[in-house]
Amino acid sequence: MAKSNVRRFCDASAITSELEGQGVPTKQAQAISAGITEVLEEVQESLMERTEMIQESSESKIKAEVQRSQMQLQREIEKLRNDMEKSNSELRLARLAIHRDEIVFKAQILTAQRVIGEYCLGTIFTVCAVAFLSRLFS
C-alpha cells in the first residue's frame, strides 16, 4: 500500500484529480499538487545526495581498511622473510659445524687407524723378536 501511495503522490495529475474530486478548485488543486511534487522531488534529491555521501564515506572507509590490511600484510611478510633469513643463516652455521665435526671425526678415525696399525706392527715385531730370541737362546 505504501508503494501505491508513493506512486499516487508522484503523479501530479492524479493528485490534482483527487483534490478536485474532494471539492478543491482546479487552480488550488494544481498549486497543491505542484507544491507536493516539488517537495517530494527535493526530498528525493536530498536522499540521493545523502545516499551518495554515505556511499562515498563507506567506500573511503573500505579503502582505508584495505590499505591498513595491506600494510599489515606487508609487515607480516617482511617479518616472515626476516625469520626465514635468520633460520637459513642458523641452518648454514649448523651445516658448517656438522661439516667441521665430520672432518675432525675423519681425522680422529685416521689417527686411530694409524695408532692401531702401529700397535699391530709393534706387536708383530715384538712377537717375532721374542720368537727369534727364544730360538737363538734355546
From TrEMBL:
Keywords: Coiled coil, Membrane, Mitochondrion, Transmembrane, Transmembrane helix
PANTHER family: PROTEIN FMP32, MITOCHONDRIAL (PTHR14360)
Coiled coil ranges: 63-97
InterPro entries attached to this UniProt entry: CCDC90-like
TM spans (from-to): 116-137
A GO CC annotation given for this chain: membrane
Compartments reported by the entry: Membrane; Mitochondrion
Stated name of the protein: DUF1640 domain-containing protein
